[in-house]
Amino acid sequence: MLKRDGNTMESGVSGVDANTSAIPAQPNPTVVVPFDAKLASQELLTLAQVDRIISVDDWYAERQDDGEDVFAALASGLLQMADLQKVAETIPSLEVDEDPATPPELVADDVKRVWGALNEAERAQIRSAVDKGFDSDPLELSPEEDEPAAANLRELLADSREFLTFSLFSWREQRSSLLNDGKSTLILFDRDFSTEGASEDAGEQEVAALLRDAPESWRIGLLTHTVADADAEIEVWKALAKKFDADSSRFLVIAKGHLAVSQAGFPRMLKLTLLAPALERMQQSLAVAVKGTWGEAIARVGDIDPYTLEAALNGDRLTDGTWGPETLLRIATAFTQDSVRAKLRSDGNVHNSSSIVTRLSRVKLPNSPDPDRVRRELAEIERLEYFESSDHLTQLHFPLEVGDVFCFQKFIDKPHSFERAKGGKGGIAEAVDSAALVPSQGGPASYMILLAQPCDLAIRHNGKRGNDLEFVRLAPLRQPIDGRVIAQPGGGNAASFDLPFFFSESGGGVEVRLSQQQYVPLTALDMCVLNDQGLGWLSSDQVMPNHLLPNWQERFKILRSWVVKKVAAYKAMQPHRIAGKGADQITDALTSTVASPALQALISIEASTVFYGVKRVGRLREPYRSALLSRMSQRDSRDAFDPSLIDKSNA
Question: Is residue 456 pLDDT above 70, yes or no?
């Protein structure tokens, strides 16, 4: 057999070459590769096809650009001829001699003579050309330790494309020509230009003007020291979008802290700035398609003849407890989805925007500084895909369905304790509102999900189930004990089923523990259907609620008669005379909760009501509830195997 000793493998069996090399060591999966903010930024700009970056900041107005660093670079003789030709394009009077024997100082002297007459944009273009000729850091006018944000911005963005810097005054001089030269541009504005004699929100005013005037190919960012984190960026962006009353997708607010303190956060905001217009176009296209298509879908539903519509709203669907308008919604949704998809497929803007989003999404960036907030917002949306809320289930008294979620909680007050003190005489039952006497509940709440074949749950026309089913299976919902995050439905193993985004506040998921199933009386769950609050109780004097389907109207009558009998039987046993827990035991026997540890029941003589400690709180949507039912069926039908002869502890 093969024996492993440290990093070597020794052969103890003939026919195995002891010199055969071992499997090479695999890379450590925990090794973290440092994030390269510059590489990510350059890749984003390339994928977004940005030709030029413009930075407008009052810091540039404070510097005296004597050009000495440029002249020194030109005089070094290290620049390629292509770089010198690029400089000559900016200065028409400059002639570059291609003779390698020509002293490079001549070019430097020619540039020096005209430097004072050049505007800021022309100087920036020359600097960009000189920068590209060197593999070293970009040329700087003066040490930038006092302005790390400006230095880092240039470091991240200036290498592969035109990078222009302006004061507010020089930007306004060049604005018109830059807007009309056809170049795809990312422009980043400082917010406060008070050092140039302008206002503290002059950058906002320039952004607002650009939102009206700039071409579609321009992307706009507002750089500011006045926000410190991602949440503040979002809030300021929302406030400015409302203030500008313009297309808010074309600009974003970026905290300078992403540049001054650490470069890692800047590429993420850069990506959002470049993507925002594409995302907005996709949203608008969807809105237009849906808005127009819903009208078309409603018209198509209206065109269905009464014979076909009557057949769709009756038959098996009515027997199974499907609400008529829900069937209409199902038909309208089918029409709508088909038409919307067709419109989106034929929309060029959708394809172009989707292509941009796909390209930029390939760039791997660090997580958001507040991933919990992002997760919470997305969880609220995704939770709607997995779960139906209890509102319409309760108010419309939807029948029981596999995937219904119930909350179980213990009672604090016990009606029989109160009534025992009064001698068991309920002489004012007619004057008491049973809903006002609902016992209070407390302690930890536990959640369970209904597991049953839909046909077994269906109520027939006589108010009964065809199989006379009295108990039904539920499985508990538990948070993972290993602390793992549930992000996908299903998962788990043969004895569990993952449900993400169960908790609305935290967005956390749960496991359906199929191996810990419990049986509860169907009467308790049926009462949740019949109760206006989704609670598991019913009184003998309760009025039939509205919106009950015909079959469930008969079910209501049966259960109300059942309550009358149980209350009468309970009263006849005179629970007020029984010491200890006798009343609880009688209650468990009458309500069939003896074998249901999660479910507690109470019977009130005073209110002539049976209470169960359960409430329907939601429903798992399709296709997930069918997948859950399939997992349950697989577990129930799993093969049995003889135990291994080898004890696990010796394996």
Answer: yes
